[in-house]
Design brief:
Elements (H helix, E strand, L loop, with lengths): L4 E6 L2 H13 L5 E4 L16 E5 L4 H10 L2 E2 L5 E2 L6 H7 L6 H8 L2 H6 L9 H22 L5 H11 L2 H10 L10 H5 L6 H19 L1 H18 L10 H11 L6 E8 L6 E8 L2 E8 L2 H17 L1
Antiparallel strand pairs: 1-3, 2-3, 4-5, 6-7, 7-8
Helix pairs in contact: 4-10, 6-7, 6-10, 6-11, 8-10, 10-11, 12-13
Length: 312
């Protein structure tokens, strides 16, 4: 039997599987080899080990042609390999992968994996699970350090709001992550790139990919950069969204103080543009006063001012 010809080299086990599946879909058998044994989990061991794909000499030319057909030639003559289209995403997240196969794995929705007949494509559901756990841990740690005065219930509500599907989807949209999702044809047609659930899942998988590629410190640094502004917004803001009255009530209860009272101080202005002045009182002592175009708005603004005063 003649010696096999190596026609593809990579540092990603996932990329090797994809290329091998591509060749098999064209009827070409190949052999994958590396310097270390492959793990069952479809990831390269350290992102640095070279993985090689070899074929029979008589099929080497055809195999190379198939692989080249799936690359992109830029105007300057540079050849971009399978996953270099993620360059913009790497710049957006401020992290460069050693094993970009991990990034592709994170962006692969189950709809794409289900359409792959080769079995070489794995979806991101396991990475989503890991990313969710990492995100929850780091955000909980941030809240513990930033808001020592919050009780367990307040921290839990803040965390739930910060890591909600809507919040994660918004973070993903800011990174234009939807443009990089690898979707099946059906999901693509139904607007999968704009679906909140898919964006949130992809965002969590991205966190897992950073962790697997660079370790906990890189993952933590990314989460802190992304969520510090959201955590900051939680200071003086209701832990359940924008309901400052609830936030103030919970803070008072945590300090064994009575519930606040809201008193109408005065109204002024014409009937079509009337303003209400509300005072929030605890134990008969005024904490803050605010005005609004309705009693409800004035009460919320007074509660916000009182909350900030007590939290400061």
């Amino acid at each position: 039997m003649p010696d096999l010809v190596v026609i593809f080299r990579t540092h990603s086990d996932i990329e090797a599987r994809i290329v091998r599946g591509l060749l098999e879909s064209h009827g070409l058998l190949s052999v994958v080899s590396s310097d270390v044994p492959h793990a069952i989990f479809p990831l390269s061991i350290d992102g640095l080990t070279e993985v090689r794909i070899a074929v029979h000499p008589d099929e080497a030319e055809d195999a190379q042609r198939i692989i080249d057909a799936h690359r992109t030639e830029l105007k300057n003559g540079q050849v971009v390999r399978l996953r270099d289209e993620f360059e913009a995403l790497q710049q957006a997240i401020g992290y460069r992968f050693h094993d970009r196969g991990l990034l592709e794995h994170a962006m692969t929705h189950t709809s794409r994996a289900n359409e792959d007949v080769s079995g070489g494509v794995v979806d991101n559901e396991s990475m989503e699970f890991l990313g969710d756990a990492l995100l929850g841990f780091v955000v909980a740690d941030m809240l513990f350090r930033e808001f020592p005065e919050y009780d367990e219930g307040m921290k839990s509500k803040t965390k739930a709001a910060v890591v909600s599907t809507a919040s994660l989807a918004k973070q993903a949209e800011r990174l234009q992550l939807g443009e990089h999702l690898l979707l099946g044809r059906g999901e693509e047609k139904t607007g999968g790139r704009r679906k909140q659930a898919l964006l949130a899942d992809g965002y969590e998988a991205l966190i897992a990919a950073i962790y697997l590629d660079g370790g906990i410190e890189h993952a933590r640094a990314f989460i802190v950069r992304e969520f510090a502004p959201l955590i900051d917004e939680a200071s003086g803001v209701s832990v359940t969204g924008q309901d400052f009255k609830s936030a103030l009530q919970e803070l008072l209860q945590a300090r064994d103080l009575p519930l606040p009272e809201y008193r109408l101080v005065s109204t002024f202005g014409p009937d079509h543009n009337k303003l209400f002045e509300i005072e929030v009182v605890v134990r008969g002592e005024p904490l803050a006063t605010a005005t609004g175009s309705s009693k409800k708005d004035a009460e919320q603004e007074a509660a916000r001012a009182a909350f900030e005063k007590l939290s400061g």
